[in-house]
Amino acid sequence: MYSVTSASITETGKVREMNEDAVLETGSLFAVADGMGGHQAGEVASALALSAIGQYVEDNLGIIPGEKLVEKAVSGANAAVHQKAVSGARFRDMGTTVTLLYREGDTAYIGHVGDSRAYLLRNGDLRQLTGDHSLVAGLVEEGEITPEEARSHPQRNVILRALGLEPRVEPDVVSVKIKPGDVFLLATDGLTSLVPDDVISRVLTECPGPADAAGRLVESALEAGGIDNVSVVIVSFAESPTVVPVGALAVEAAGEPLPEATGRGHARRWLVLLALLLVLLAAGFGVGLYFFNHTFFVGVKGGKVTLFKGFPFWDMAMVERQTDIEIKFLPDALRIRVEENLETESRRNAEKTIESLAMEVEKNSSIVPDVEGKGYDEATEILLGAGLRPVPELVSRPEIEPDVVIIQDPAPGARVGKGSDVRLKVVLGGTPAREV
Ligand code: CA
User: Fold this and answer.
1) Which of 7, 240, 294, 373 fits a disulfide with 214 by CB distance 3.0 to 4.6 angstroms?
2) CA of 374 to the centre of ligand 1 (A)
3) How far does residue 177's CA lie from ligand 1's centre (Å)?
4) pLDDT (tens digit, 9 = 90+) per residue, 145-184?
5) Ordered domains of the chain (ranges, CATH)
6) How far apart are the C-alpha atoms of 422 and 410, rounded to whole Å?
């Protein structure tokens, strides 16, 4: 029995506006997908593929054996994406790569279509487990170009097989007997086309755990330009300590020749039950963690609109990002709703919600302009233009030119509600008295 630790990151990168990659990380199923197709269709394709695969594996766990399960899950996902692709013009020609790892006992099954990759780091050696279904991979195989040339080849993005393009797809499935210490990496080409294998190998060897390694790999891709969406999933296997039930220990220690059949049978049942319980717990935890990591909502922290990860109950949320959008500038009804936390949604949608709240604040508030040192007439015009109300107070400063604003309150740069007062200290003029 092995214990599994894993981590995953998917990141838009520095150039693309959207992230069309998707990742999946549960107790026994891990995957990356790299979607393609215009108008956000790629995003739909990758998410749809992974959710179809996750659902299929969940429904058939323990019913269909590993290799068949992976094959059927990928074929099913292909059909789901293809069906969507032919459903309307917006989704036409969309598709996605998928590279997954499904673990059953001490075997890892790798399912693969497209040019994302699976690697295995074992005893310090990095091995690529999948072959790219791409034009350049074919050219490399035929000796036409070198792997190095493939990296910068103008047709490097042309893939020959992807999910959703055709009604049927033939996935590659390989199985690997897991050894203690094995580290598997699933990655989209946003990593592998920018970060050479020897760097990947070094990061996986040197980083203490999957989370560190995943972070470091994504950083390397960003440092190398981050020209594409980049996604990694790292799964690491360690031998877990053997679980020996207390009953069995007592039997051995006492050395009493208990009736073999019942004693051992009892212990074995115990072990099976315990193992089953652990598996169920781990699976439940994995699913829970997956939803936790993919569920966001918008709420308030410190008076500011804040993006939370998790669920808005039972303290099951973490601050993902605190914005500088102050809720006091939201219209009352909206402010109250945000204070009570908005409904959970995907990260992308939560970010859109934040954008619209920012626009709402923008509409209802103004940044106080700098009018100190300006003449009163000009200052008034500027403040009215910004939707604010100048409130002058005349002060006597014989040494300063009359009619000049010497102090304003609030200070320049502060954000205040539309229509707020801005108090101005204006130097009393020698000229005819001004009505203020
Ligand atoms: Ca890509």
Assistant:
1) 7
2) 55
3) 29
4) 888 888 778 777 778 889 998 999 999 999 999 999 999 9
5) 2-239 (3.60.40.10), 296-365 (3.30.70), 368-427 (3.30.10.20)
6) 6
